[in-house]
Amino acid sequence: MTGITFDELIDYLMNNHEIEFTYNSSIYIIQPEVSDDTHWLTIYTADKDTDNQCIAKLETPSNLTDANDIISSLLSINCFNGKSFMEIEKEIHISTIY
Question: pTM higher than 0.85 for the full model?
Answer without folding.
Answer: yes
